[in-house]
Amino acid sequence: MKRSYEEILYKSKDKTSSRYGKKPEKRNLEELLQKGIVNIDKPRGPTSHEVTSWVKKILDIPKAGHSGTLDPNVSGILPVTLGRATKLVKFLMASDKEYVCTLHLQKDVPEQELMKVLNEYQGVLYQKPPVKSAVKRRVRTRKIHYINPIEIQGRDVLMRIGCEAGTYIRKLCHDMGLSLGCGASMEELRRTKTGVFGEESAILLQDLLDAKVFSIEENNEDILKKNIVPYEAVLDPLKKIWIKDTAVEALSHGAALSLPGVSKIQSDISRGDVIAVMTLKNEAVAISKAEMDSEDIMKRNKGIVAKSLTVLMERGIYPRAWN
Q1: The domain made up of 34-93+197-227 is a member of CATH 2.60.40.10
Q2: Residue-wise pLDDT tens digits, 99-108
Q3: What is the pTM of this model?
Q4: What digits encode the pLDDT tens for the residues 289-313?
Q5: Which residues are catalytic, by number?
Q6: How many H helices and E strands in the chain?
Q7: Cβ atoms within 10 A of the Cβ of 216, count?
Q8: Which is the CATH superfamily of the domain at 8-24+232-311?
Q9: Residue 91 and residue 79: Cα distance in Å, rounded?
Q10: Coil, strand, or helix at residue 95?
Q11: Domain residue ranges of the chain, discontinuous segments joined by +
Q12: Burial 44-80, CB ≥16 within 10 A → b, else e
């Protein structure tokens, strides 16, 4: 989900040169295969790793990654990062998730009592990963944003769950059964959202293959391009700083962002925030940690604004502006 942006504040009025870089929506297919994401609708059966390998084979690219493992028997949203976009895998893995699942109760439970327990499990809860898990089994906190029942039929409850990354839905269902005093289990599970990616933009593997074949047969790369999202989409939830063309190359080498390089900012930045640093063409330069808040950035003329956590922009795209 996109965040509702605050006011844009202009530190200086700058223009960007058409000689350097390119707006994300103007990238050709070759560029998107290095800076794009395919939102795959994973079927039940294969592992997430297998699906990622098939995407690599279909697109004929050497590097791809997936943004959070889905068990083989779970279907749903699996964004696959391409090329340089694999740098965003950790960011995607940490993003909120949404699932639709079937909770099966072992005994009949009054609907009023069921609704009470579903409401109680919204908010911060303690979870210990199940025995068969990829992480260390220790108690940790996870936030459940919402649990919305879709349909109740006898002892089966179809519900939509929005939660923090790393929440075990099977364990959640088991714990709710204990609270209800009847026992419960998760029967089916489908992931419907990962960060900004939802079902509306998902594509089946077969459809991706068809798009690849048709784009070659018709000599029209747009057929395949429309299924690849520029990786900047992942950064939509982050607060942003836009920098001058002359500052881009320094940051692509890992340099910190200093005040003279800032062109405009969002008004709601706080020190310590994880932010996105962008070019004036809206290309991703880096994910950084803010060292000043918006007020200080606008008021001061010297100092470090942000330090890079992950550099996204490759070197040599923008001119070098230092001796």
Answers
A1: no
A2: 999 999 999 9
A3: 0.90
A4: 999 999 999 999 999 999 999 999 9
A5: 71
A6: 9, 17
A7: 12
A8: PUA domain (2.30.130.10)
A9: 12
A10: coil
A11: 8-24+232-311, 34-93+197-227, 97-194
A12: eeeebeebbebbbebbeeeebbbbbebeeebbbbbbb
